[in-house]
Amino acid sequence: MKVAIFIDGTHLSKVEQENRIHINYEKLGDELTKGDYRVRTYYYDARANRSDLDSKEEQELDYKKETFLCAIDKFPRFEIKLGRLQKIMGKWVQKGVDMQLGVDMVQMSASKQIDKVILIAADGDFVYSVMKAKEAGVVTTLVSFPNDIINRDLRKAVDEVIELDDAFIEKCRFN
């Protein structure tokens, strides 16, 4: 089976923080696609324009994100897709990230580039994209981590949910 992994970076980062784990994304992709051909792993996130960063703290966070993105960009068959961060009422908000992920999932499914989607996300915004991928004949799998809060409609929309346990996560930890 030809598989593509779609990662909502903000969601996975939150999972790592809440579970106090540091995941090796390359190992995670390999473990999730054992026995299948992984076409590519797509990682979706957002960055602010540097000119919009007001404080030293914001600049340091941006530098850490840039360092992280450069590191994961070196993994084989791994692609980073970035939206933008926009400051609204003093709070940074992602723009365009979910739309990119959903459109890419549907496009790859409809064009028969993949037979299976593995989605690492929790947002109900992906329900329609999952339904369209399924209509194209693609198997849709949602990955759930311990303590993960996943939108109920998203969980119902996918064909299957993989509930990762501690043993699986241990195989994917950064050493």
Keywords:
single chain; 175 residues; alpha/beta; 7 helices; globular
Summarize the model shown:
This protein is an alpha/beta fold.
Report on this model:
There is one protein chain. The protein starts with a strand and ends with a helix. The protein is globular and about 50 Å long. With 175 residues, the protein is an alpha/beta fold. It has helices spanning 9-19, 25-32, 56-72, 97-110, 127-135, 152-157, 166-171; strands at residues 2-8, 37-47, 78-88, 91-95, 116-120, 139-144, 160-163. A 7-stranded mixed β-sheet has the order 4-3-2-1-5-6-7, with helices on both faces. It contains 7 helices and 7 strands, in the order βααβαββαβαβαβα. The model has no long low-confidence stretch (mean pLDDT 90).
- How many distinct beta strands? 7
* Shape descriptor: globular
Q: What is the typical, i.e. mean, pLDDT?
A: 90
* Percent strand: 25-35%
Alpha-carbon Rg, integer: 16 Å
Strand order, main sheet: write it out.
4-3-2-1-5-6-7
Regions with pLDDT < 50 over 5+ consecutive residues? none
Summarize the amount of helix as a percent range: 40-55%
Topology diagram in text:
Layout: E1 2-8, H1 9-19, H2 25-32, E2 37-47, H3 56-72, E3 78-88, E4 91-95, H4 97-110, E5 116-120, H5 127-135, E6 139-144, H6 152-157, E7 160-163, H7 166-171
Parallel strand pairs: 1-2, 1-5, 2-3, 5-6, 6-7
Antiparallel strand pairs: 3-4
Helix pairs in contact: 4-5
